[in-house]
Amino acid sequence: xxxxxxxxxxxxxxxxxxxxxxxxxxxxxxxxxxxxxxxxxxxxxxxxxxxxxxxxxxxxxxxxxxxxxxxxxxxxxxxxxxxxxxxxxxxxxxxxxxxxxxxxxxxxxxxxxxxxxxxxxxxxxxxxxxxxxxxxxxxxxxxxxxxxxxxxxxxxxxxxxxxxxxxxxxxxxxxxxxxxxxxxxxxxxxxxxxxxxxxxxxxxxxxxxxxxxxxxxxxx
Length: 220
Prior knowledge:
By secondary structure, the chain is of the alpha/beta class. Helix content is 45%, strand content 10%.
């Protein structure tokens, strides 16, 4: 496996592009009742949520997330709290943001956000899930399992693959996350955590080649 760098290794570019395209659902963004920013190491999620709020895509934002081992150093007060602060700095009114600070995985992001909104008396018929680009398909499948009655649209930072890798600064990390999320599509559906999603043979082959190349740190 190549050393950490901010550019993709040429030898694996085609396989990385295959997984990248598979996970990004390319949904058309319309109006929804609430935008839900899923916590992670990527502050771009909060940036995209703020951008969509300013474009009147939704009237309310929920940031959800506690910490994971990969985020506690960067976001010591919790992912959702830091996301909120970032969104406020970008012009989102503080009273248009709710914080769900306990979720430690995508399932909890959905279920605890749903609970929070119910407690607030907010009626929800549609949601926009804002996540990392390679988390879209898993977030969608999880939400449709745990909150099947809502209409779900997925959104992420609108960056081409190379620009996204550069923004993270670590191609190895991005590739490993892509591989891990691909595994979770099938694994989580089999465990009842998400609805099933198609896995084209081209995606499966690319996934296995990247595992053979050593991008395994995010596998369960």
